């Protein structure tokens, strides 16, 4: 051991395993370094070391470049491609390798996701360098080789692949000097000036009004105003004002609630000690404030809780506000004329050739929210509904305005409130960060709704305009995301510019709107009516404690008026038509798309940098109409393909009116329709997990009842996430994690055990559940909207959705939403997308604008699936099938009238069979007691049906149900006998109630049973009928009746209303409406009495 030879022994022979054995490749004549045995090929050498020398570790090395790896297969794959030391030198020269990344592709992918800006800049630099070298060696035969040798980082083939991508025309900036001349819009076929078309609508309406005039109830003032022979417009307007005033005399404005507002409680004063009485009083005030706000305006309370403050009130001086808006609204916008910009499609004036009907008015009254803001006249929804109750007044009034084309000046008085655009308090000191909402009389808004619906049918607009249309936001976002993804996958360029028009709604000229209406050839009478609605229109701006002087609205549309959206869409229609006809859009197999519009939110699209002349069209339109583009708030990016990826913004700047547009880098994003769009990852995912956790903590701290906290979370918090999660590629695992957080909070607030099944949480309230939103099921169900887009009235979008790529995406979404892959509808076949019914038939040439809207197929009803899974549970699902689709038995879940909070929580526990009895608390645990003091298993069904400890309470519950039924029969003059005694052979029978009237007797016996299954109550009813069947003759003798009917009247202990009980209520001559009310009453009372029994059993006072 002391010899010199021991010093040369390998480390592994000395018992150290720190150094591995190195096997050089290629070598098919391997020798064992330990036992010196001849082995052969590397694979055999590997097996030899594993079998005989398993204590040592192995590494494999390339003998050409000295690359090492512990994986034999990796080195064997490396050997054919190895070029010796040049590979190693190349890697060293690149200077990009990191010890954490063993391959270049791994480092590239890391940069792509973690450092997109760095990766994008490197790619742009590399491409520009290649371009410069190409210029240097232009004309050389071996140009690729020369460039590769000079670069030193690429071979000939790689250079050759990259060069075509850079072979583009020189970039030229679109400045004022090289704009198309004449302007792009004027290149369209010029049309002569259009004038309002007279189609005789006014005379037709006047003829139709004869039936209205001939009614006895029609006011004489209405008749005089309609049939006046005067041609003096002032006289006509005076007659309309007089007639309107007479009809509106019956309106009862809502009294102003001055001094009745609940003042927000003050916070603790710093540095001042409060006595316990004052602290308690302050807590009570805080509690009352939140309860009052919850009952009156849940949305406002949710904003207070989730956002940290109520809607901020404007603190800017009223004089400053007044001068700002006076200048904005009373100075008319210069309008030279559309000059070549045209709105396509003629108006269908026939929709205005009929009087306004009572049904039309009622339909629109129902569509108005009852809590809608009041106008300056304080007329609310209830006052209008009361006025319409006679079916005459509003019909006369609205048709008078429609026929004469004039609206009373009294109703043109408005009020304007300011809504903050952002939440930063410092930024709110700027008047530009407040949005004015102008609120007119609710009566005038009702009339505007009716005119708006007719105008939407009469005047078609370009399909690219999705503003204020059903699913408009979703369709535009889905289209933009698809175009960006498609461009990347198909290696196409795509240019995107987000446009911001300054104060578009407030600055659009009235002349602009009316000229578009004339281009549409809308009847002159209807144009005059719309024009009249803005004549002498005035408003007063109101802040928290201040009011301004009157301001006349001479420009812009009223944000808050139902007519404003369609008028603004019509004003923008000529621009969208010009962009689609003349713009260089992004070309797809389905067609060309130059713009996506949602009201004033525009996205300009092109398939190359040079093609973004869409900006020129926009500039020309704004110059003609007086609208202004805010270049500082406009953003852009350009995605260009490379060999294996793409780069961003490798181009010159774009500008609008000489102002350069902001360039969106790969790490930045732009908010479009409340969703962040990035050129690198398309739609950025929200921090949903942190948001929902933060919101739950905020809701938890607020002095609300547990059920109220659940409602705020479900209705106002979760719904905030749906829109963003819907339009991002949120993973199923992330959605399930969010659902887990929500379930945990709901169970904690409602004191439900952790083992409570999901069925109670997610089933709809009609099926006996809480109706909580399940994001993992809801989001995929929403995302299959592609089938609606496939049937879009926009032919380009419809065709776009019918590609194979979209069909594959739709199949994936369909299966994620729970659908069967084999039953996935085909987007290219409209007939497969809808559910066929007798009411809905699909013709060969299906028109998406057809009045009959199709009912689209759905993969599954996830709430029903949750309910079905609940019913299959052996314990918690006991008897749950009784409550399916039963609004009578489940009414307490959505309307808690008569339920205290402890009752509501206990009722939930009872419904899911998790009420804390011994059997429930020790369920699944061996050796723990489950028996009560009577030595019987302590379950809810036994306590409520058999336990002697609560026998008196059980009798009391039974008698109260009988009393309710008797009192109701008494109202209909039935003679009532309670528990009469009848003797049979050695037997005594005592039915609960006998009702008699007009030779008819009804025998009823009430029973309350625990719902074990669907037949429990049916069986109980038959038992009672059979038990008292033999008493018919004695009942006839007692009551003198000729016809005797015997009924059992069963009710579930958990609130199940037995449907056959309706027959009994009908026999007692109770009206249908009252029957529904009684069904809910019996259900609630039976449930509440059961809860009292359980409380008594537990030793608590009921």
TrEMBL record:
<dbReference type="InterPro" id="IPR043502">
    <property type="entry name" value="DNA/RNA_pol_sf"/>
</dbReference>
<feature type="region of interest" description="Disordered">
    <location>
        <begin position="256"/>
        <end position="275"/>
    </location>
</feature>
<feature type="compositionally biased region" description="Basic and acidic residues">
    <location>
        <begin position="264"/>
        <end position="275"/>
    </location>
</feature>
<dbReference type="Pfam" id="PF00078">
    <property type="entry name" value="RVT_1"/>
</dbReference>
<feature type="domain" description="Reverse transcriptase">
    <location>
        <begin position="400"/>
        <end position="677"/>
    </location>
</feature>
<feature type="region of interest" description="Disordered">
    <location>
        <begin position="92"/>
        <end position="128"/>
    </location>
</feature>
<feature type="compositionally biased region" description="Basic and acidic residues">
    <location>
        <begin position="115"/>
        <end position="128"/>
    </location>
</feature>
<feature type="compositionally biased region" description="Polar residues">
    <location>
        <begin position="96"/>
        <end position="108"/>
    </location>
</feature>
<protein>
    <recommendedName>
        <fullName>Reverse transcriptase domain-containing protein</fullName>
    </recommendedName>
</protein>
<feature type="region of interest" description="Disordered">
    <location>
        <begin position="152"/>
        <end position="191"/>
    </location>
</feature>
<dbReference type="InterPro" id="IPR000477">
    <property type="entry name" value="RT_dom"/>
</dbReference>
């Amino acid at each position: 051991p002391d010899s010199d030879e021991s010093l040369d022994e390998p480390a592994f022979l000395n018992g150290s395993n720190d150094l591995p054995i190195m096997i050089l490749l290629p070598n098919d004549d391997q020798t064992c370094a330990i036992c010196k045995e001849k082995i052969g090929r590397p694979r055999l050498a590997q097996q030899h070391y594993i079998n005989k020398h398993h204590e040592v570790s192995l590494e494999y090395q390339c003998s050409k470049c000295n690359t090492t790896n512990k994986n034999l297969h990796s080195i064997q794959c490396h050997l054919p491609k190895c070029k010796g030391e040049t590979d190693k030198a190349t890697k060293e020269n690149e200077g990009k390798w990191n010890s954490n990344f063993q391959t270049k592709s791994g480092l590239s992918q890391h940069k792509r996701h973690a450092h997109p800006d760095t990766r994008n800049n490197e790619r742009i630099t590399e491409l520009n360098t290649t371009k410069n070298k190409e210029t240097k060696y232009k004309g050389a035969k071996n140009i690729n080789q020369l460039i590769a040798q000079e670069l030193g980082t690429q071979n000939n083939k790689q250079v050759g692949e990259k060069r075509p991508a850079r072979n583009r025309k020189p970039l030229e900036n679109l400045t004022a000097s090289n704009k198309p001349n004449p302007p792009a819009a004027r290149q369209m076929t010029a049309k002569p000036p259009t004038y309002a078309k007279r189609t005789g609508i006014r005379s037709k309406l006047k003829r139709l009004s004869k039936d209205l005039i001939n009614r006895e109830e029609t006011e004489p003032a209405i008749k005089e105003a309609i049939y006046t022979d005067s041609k003096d417009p002032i006289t006509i307007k005076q007659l309309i004002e007089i007639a309107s005033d007479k009809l509106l005399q019956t309106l009862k404005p809502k009294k102003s609630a001055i001094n009745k507002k609940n003042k927000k409680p003050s916070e603790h004063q710093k540095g001042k000690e409060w006595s316990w009485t004052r602290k308690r009083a302050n807590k009570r005030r805080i509690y009352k404030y939140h309860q009052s706000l919850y009952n009156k305006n849940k949305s406002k309370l949710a904003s207070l809780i989730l956002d940290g403050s109520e809607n901020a009130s404007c603190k800017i001086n009223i004089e400053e506000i007044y001068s700002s808006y006076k200048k904005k609204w009373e100075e008319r916008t210069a309008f030279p004329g559309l000059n070549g910009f045209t709105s396509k499609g003629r108006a269908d004036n026939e929709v205005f050739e009929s009087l306004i009907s009572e049904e039309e008015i009622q339909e629109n009254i129902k569509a108005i929210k009852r809590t809608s803001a009041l106008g300056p006249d304080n007329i609310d929804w209830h006052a209008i509904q009361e006025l319409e109750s006679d079916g005459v007044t509003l019909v006369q009034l609205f048709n008078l305005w429609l026929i004469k084309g004039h609206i009373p000046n009294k109703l043109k008085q408005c009020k304007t409130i300011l809504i903050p655009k952002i939440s930063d308090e410092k930024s709110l000191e700027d008047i530009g960060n407040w949005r004015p909402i102008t609120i007119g009389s609710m009566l005038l808004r009702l009339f505007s709704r009716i005119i708006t619906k007719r105008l939407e049918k009469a005047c078609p607009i370009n399909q690219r305009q999705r503003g204020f249309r059903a699913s408009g936001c979703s369709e535009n976002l889905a289209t933009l995301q698809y175009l960006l993804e498609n461009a990347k996958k198909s290696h196409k360029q795509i240019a995107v510019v987000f446009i911001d028009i300054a104060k578009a709604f407030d600055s659009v000229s009235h002349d602009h709107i009316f000229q578009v209406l004339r281009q549409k050839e809308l009847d002159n009478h209807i144009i005059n009516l719309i024009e009249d609605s803005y004549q002498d229109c005035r408003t007063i701006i109101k802040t928290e404690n201040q009011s301004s002087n009157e301001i006349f609205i001479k420009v812009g549309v009223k944000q808050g008026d139902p007519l404003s959206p369609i008028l603004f869409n019509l004003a923008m229609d000529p621009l969208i038509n010009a962009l689609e006809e003349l713009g260089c859009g992004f070309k797809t197999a389905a067609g060309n798309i130059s713009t996506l519009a949602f009201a004033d939110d525009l996205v300009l699209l092109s398939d190359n940098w040079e093609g973004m002349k869409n900006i020129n069209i926009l500039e020309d339109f704004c110059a003609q109409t007086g609208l202004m583009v805010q270049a500082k708030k406009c953003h852009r990016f350009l995605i260009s393909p490379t060999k294996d990826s793409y780069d961003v913004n490798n181009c010159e700047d774009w500008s609008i009116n000489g102002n350069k547009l902001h360039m969106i880098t790969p790490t930045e994003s732009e908010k479009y329709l409340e969703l962040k769009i990035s050129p690198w990852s398309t739609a950025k995912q929200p921090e949903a997990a942190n948001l929902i956790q933060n919101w739950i903590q905020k809701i938890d701290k607020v002095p609300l009842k547990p059920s109220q906290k659940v409602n705020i979370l479900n209705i106002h918090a979760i719904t905030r996430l749906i829109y963003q999660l819907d339009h991002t590629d949120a993973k199923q695992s992330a959605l399930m994690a969010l659902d887990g957080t929500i379930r945990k909070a709901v169970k904690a607030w409602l004191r439900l055990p952790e083992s409570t099944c999901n069925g109670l949480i997610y089933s709809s309230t009609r099926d006996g559940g809480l109706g909580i939103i399940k994001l993992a099921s809801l989001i995929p169900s929403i995302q299959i909207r592609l089938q609606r887009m496939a049937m879009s009235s926009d032919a380009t979008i419809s065709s776009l959705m019918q590609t194979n790529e979209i069909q594959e995406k739709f199949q994936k979404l369909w299966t994620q939403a729970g659908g069967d892959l084999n039953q996935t509808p085909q987007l290219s076949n409209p007939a497969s997308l809808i559910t066929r019914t007798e009411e809905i038939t699909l013709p060969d040439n299906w028109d998406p604008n057809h009045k009959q809207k199709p009912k689209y197929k759905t993969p599954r009803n996830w709430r029903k699936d949750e309910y079905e899974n609940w019913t299959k549970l052996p314990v918690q699902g006991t008897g749950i099938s009784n409550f399916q689709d039963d609004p009578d038995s489940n009414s307490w879940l959505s309307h808690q009238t008569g339920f205290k909070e402890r009752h509501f929580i206990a009722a939930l526990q009872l419904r899911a069979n998790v009420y804390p009895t011994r059997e429930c608390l020790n369920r699944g645990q061996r050796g723990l007691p489950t028996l009560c003091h009577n030595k019987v298993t302590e379950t809810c069904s036994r306590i409520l049906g058999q336990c002697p400890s609560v026998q008196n309470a059980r009798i009391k519950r039974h008698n109260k149900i009988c009393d309710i039924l008797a009192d109701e029969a008494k109202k209909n003059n039935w003679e009532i006998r309670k528990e009469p005694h009848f003797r049979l052979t050695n037997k005594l029978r005592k039915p609960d109630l006998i009702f008699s009237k007009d030779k008819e007797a009804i025998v009823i016996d009430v029973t309350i049973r625990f719902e074990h299954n669907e037949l429990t109550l049916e069986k109980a009813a038959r038992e009672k009928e059979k038990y008292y069947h033999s008493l018919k003759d004695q009942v006839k003798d007692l009551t003198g009746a000729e016809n005797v009917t015997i009924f059992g009247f069963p009710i579930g202990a958990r609130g199940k209303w037995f449907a056959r009980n309706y027959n009994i209520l009908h026999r007692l001559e109770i009206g249908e409406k009252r029957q529904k009310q009684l069904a809910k009453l019996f259900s609630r009372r039976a449930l509440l009495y059961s809860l009292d029994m359980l409380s008594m059993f537990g030793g608590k006072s009921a």
